[in-house]
Amino acid sequence: MMGRTAFACILAMALGLCALAGPARAESGYDLWLRYQPVQDDYAGANHVSALVTGYRSPTLDAAAWELRRGLTGMFGEPPAQSSAVTADGALVIGTPKSAPAIAALNLSLQALGDEGYLIRSVSIGGHKATVIAANSDIGVLYGAFAFLRLVQTRTALAGLDIASAPKTRLRVLDHWDNLNGTVERGYAGASIWDWPALPEHVSRRITDYARANASIGINGAVVNNVNADAAFLTAEYIEKEARLADVLRPFGIRLYLSVRWSAPMELGGLKSADPLDPKVKAWWQAKTDEIYRAIPDFGGFLVKANSEGQPGPQDYHRSHADGANMIADVLAPHHGVVMWRAFVYANDPKIDRATTAYNEFVPLDGKFRDNVVLQVKNGPLDFQPREPFSPLFGAMAHTSLMMEFQITKEYLGQQTHLAYLGTLYEEALKSDTYEHGPGSTVARVIDGSLDHHPISGIAGVANIGNDADWCGSIFNQANWYVFGRMAWDPEISARTVADEWVRQTFTNDPAFVAPVVDMMMKSRAAVVDYMTPLGLALIMAHGHHMGPGPWDTIGPREDWKAPYYHRADANGIGFDRVASGYVAQYHSPLKEEFAGTATTPEDLLLWFHHVSWDHRMTSGRTLWQELIARYSHGVDAVAEMQANWTKLADDVDPERYAQVRDFLAIQHREAIWWRDACLAYFGQFSKRPFPDGYKPKYPLSYYEKMPFGASPKP
Ligand code: GCW
After folding, report:
1. Which of 240, 294, 456, 484 could disulfide-link 461, Cβ–Cβ 3.0 to 4.6 Å?
2. For ligand 1, is residue 47 a contact (CB within 6 Å)?
3. Is 494 close to ligand 1, i.e. is its CB under 6 Å away?
């Protein structure tokens, strides 16, 4: 009898898919990590699935069965038989005890799985070997189906399976900074995927594929509009459009949320104020919220950016963030909705260290928020920099739910083209120890709620998704969407594990490809840190668009929007003295003692915490000036190494994706040199120390300063 693998290959060859010789079929990247390519190796799992056994139907269970059929057919060449009972070895039985009698009969202990977890187990049913994907809820079954397909795609043996998995956080949300007009703030992957003019009548297939991708990694919420919110998203016309979207997302377990503009009661309701303690204001929000829930019964809630970067908020009426958040929370509570209130605030006062402001504003409010309020805190105290220490708010608010806000879109890390795997950045932040209750009080445990028993736990990621063929502007940017979801589900999973499974699903299981590519990903973000902001530098990107170097930039209207405010380079040295600013004191011991001295501060963050002399001796034996040159140069060299490694892998990737990565690495290399040379030319005018041979920037500083947007230096 012909083995499944051979059969799959013959079928695939007939379809022109099998690449026994010559380059693989070109791929645009649209399929993301859900490619389900024919299994052509001698994978032992190949003979394991003969039939798909389902029970009662629901939209979510149908989605699970559809995905399994699609995946297994793609990989094994023939669809599994559809059945309602196990009659032979190799059946895959999916459902809940309620939906599938075959699962009820197994009497599995599912309690620990909660509402969203799943179990995948090898069992025997009526003397036949079978695999069950069981859960307490339909969505758990869908998550389990995707997990099973991941096992096959990563070539995990399917015998003797016993996997139980449940998410550690409750809100696993993508924040889309998408505007009404189809643009995306800080988006580098084309226009918004939401086609508002076509709604409510039409929703494209792309939205279903978006929902599938999210469900495959456990994302269960989408804030569909920008935090710099337009009140129009709350009009009856838009609520109808949003309701239609919510209908498409619902089977995939994704709740729709909206960013709201604080002054909406004035703009839409004609009120004279948006004072949270004004009963008319509350009545307006009450009516609006009820209207939304009539259209979207499982609506998730609101995300609010208030009194931040010019947005209106409760402080306009001398009310606190808690007054504002609680008013909205009270109108949402009867519907079980939540308020995600952003802690991204900073004062327009050059005498105050911007990094200290969120702590100063929010810590006094600890314990004053309703149970359905969760503060959404960026990983670092400034703004999604290539490297920041964790925000001291984590670990400082025992009585307030805190959720993480990561940026998936790479506003400050090379935007569309630079290869920067953010798994290592997320991991670094989540593993950081706050010492709130002594060692082991990690940020991961703050945001999964376990450290202080917060009522709400969660992670948000600012999406990097757009209408581009490959969704994210580049193939490697897809990894950042992927790792965000996987770490939201399990904040303790390692960046390397996730990179490995992403590479296997996105490209190939060939170890000769997987190992070097994972290695490249794991080093990639550190390379960006080095060629942009080594040693704890921050916010020295060009003004406004944040693409390219701008350490000289002083054109902003506020001191804390100018680069020298952050790097403080002068004849004596460089860096921000955050002992003097009061920032260091916001951490628990032993961190505040550690960060207080230059000798005990990690060198990777030295200039974040201290103003350091150009001649300060580093552990490498170099002076600070020499170390700065070495780090900038290391960043450039690391990109050159990625280029060289990628070139060796040409035969293992389809030509389209190979070429994109090759070309983008070339851009990254050119721009890394630009970063290095521009920054060293700029800082050199303060340090007045010599450049080692071969390290002097090619052009004078004025050349870099005058470079127009979109250009980068001639090689
Ligand atoms: O990172 C900065 C961005 C702004 C953004 C803001 C925020 C949505 O430059 O574009 O506005 O943060 O997070 O609110």
Report:
1. 484
2. no
3. no
Residue 505: Cβ within 10 Å count: 23
Based on the fold, state whether residues 190 and 338 are members of the same structural domain. yes
Residue 715 lies in a domain: no
Pocket test for ligand 1, best of 345, 346, 383 (most atoms within 8 A of CB): 383
| Structure token pair of residue 549 | 């170097």
CA of 541 to the centre of ligand 1 (A): 14
State pLDDT tens for residues 581-636: 999 999 999 999 999 999 999 999 999 999 999 999 999 999 999 999 999 999 99
Which residue, among 547, 575, 546, has the nearest Cα to 683 in the 3D structure? Answer: 575
Count the domains in the chain.
3
Q: How far apart are the first and last CA of the chain?
A: 61
Ligand 1 atom nearest to CA at 383? 1
Beta bridge partners of 339: 302, 373
Q: Is 89 considered catalytic here?
A: no
Tell whether 151 and 220 lie within a shared domain: no
| Tens-digit pLDDT profile for residues 108-150 | 999 999 999 999 999 999 999 999 999 999 999 999 999 999 9
Q: What is the CA radius of gyration of the chain?
A: 26
Q: What angle do helix axes 236-249 and 279-295 make, rounded to 10 degrees?
A: 40
Question: Is 476 a pocket residue for ligand 1 (Cβ < 6 Å)?
Answer: no
Q: Is 95 left (phi over 0), alpha (psi -120 to 50) or beta?
A: left
Tokens of 555: 């054109």
Q: Which of 185, 316, 383, 656 is catalytic?
A: 383
How far is residue 581's CA from residue 609's CA, in Å, rounded to a whole number? 10
In the three-class reduction of DSSP (H, G, I as helix; E, B as strand; rest coil), residue 128 is classed as strand
User: What is the CATH number for 238?
Assistant: 3.20.20.80
Residue 543 Cβ < 6 Å to ligand 1: no
Number of the ligand 1 atom closest to the C-alpha atom of 226: 8
Atom nearest to 412 CA in ligand 1: 1
Cβ-contact 548, 541 below 8 angstroms: yes
Same domain as 316, residue 432 = yes
Mutate to test the pocket of ligand 1, among 175, 183, 185 (most ligand atoms within 8 A of CB): 185
Q: What is the extent of the structural domain holding 153?
A: 32-165
Which of 639, 637, 634 lies closest to 661 in space, CA to CA?
A: 639
